[in-house]
Amino acid sequence: MSDYATHLLEQRATTWNAAKALLDTAAAEGRELSAAEEESYGRMTAEIADLRSKADKVLADKANAEAAEVALRSISTPAAGFQPPADDAREKELRAFLTGESRKFETGPTSEEKRALSKGSATAGGNTVPTSFYPQLWQHLIETATLINGGATVFTTDSGENFEVPVTTSHGAAAAVSEAGTIAGTDPAFAKRTLGAFKYAQLIVLSRELVEDTGVDLQSYIAQAVGWNLGNAFGQKLIVGAGTTEPLGITASTTLGATGSTAVAGVPNLDNLIDLQYSVIAPYRNRPAAKWVIKDATAATLRKIKDTTGQYIWQPAVIAGQPDLLLGKPVLTDPYMPATAINAKSVIFGDLSAYAVRVVNGIRFERSDDVRFDSDQITFRAVIRGDGLLLDQTGAVKHFVGGAS
Length: 405
Hints:
single chain, alpha+beta, seven-stranded mixed β-sheet
């Protein structure tokens, strides 16, 4: 870990201790936080989230820079006997696209690209461009789309026809049988889930001067801007999509695990969270992909909750890149999760690998020098086609809903 990332996490721990002290003082005096204290607590929780984000970014930037340096060395001083890989033509195609010699570059579902999608690697080594453009674009998409980053199952397909996934809905049941009796029992039951291909896209227009003068930095800018926006559009629907004309989001396809008290306007308490966690059966609950998904504002509320021994149930991460824990399980925050409110599905818990994300043929990224010919501008277009739904709807992931008043 870098010294600066360590410093940021130490600041985060200090701020969290100050927030706890504020809560503990009010609890010791048997009162709620005052308006001024509530405002102060809100600022501190925002700072906690910001410091965590900065620490993770420092480590990611450091890893990207190291990978880019290795890639650049391998290009400038190739080892003796080095032979270009079989897909060297693909790298030449990418170079031609970035320099404007080619108007189109389409990403396909190669093993490297699948690895970039699932692991978020920033740059490839070997005989590649110093800043690998396609993995950068995927990395920014993953950082925005919480479910992809959080362990959802990702399918990459070559084309966009309906993609069917068979699932079991029941394993059947055995039954006791008397001597010489007829064997009974029930058969397993099967169903299928269908993933479509909904389109999300963005157009970016840049002046030719910007394209020609910024060089390599332009790649990072376009990757961040387009990747962020595609990730926001697609990632939002993976959380709250209604299905039919868009992905069926995880909030729409989970089953009820716990309902809040009618007296707290949709805010979960400790008992609600425990009920929700244990409403998911052990085979799913104990998997590494079992996580909480909440909104940032909900995280600020849940940080206040203590167990019966007076210990906070929220455990902030002390290592950059590692998630905070709630009741011993990792927490993901997503801006599109509903806020705590009456009848709102504000907290989700379960095995996120049961949620499937389908991506068609990677990301298509194209360039045109002709569309804005009269203004001497260059147009970039990025398109992603995909879908999402919960494969196992028997209880792998469940939600908390705020109790009606």
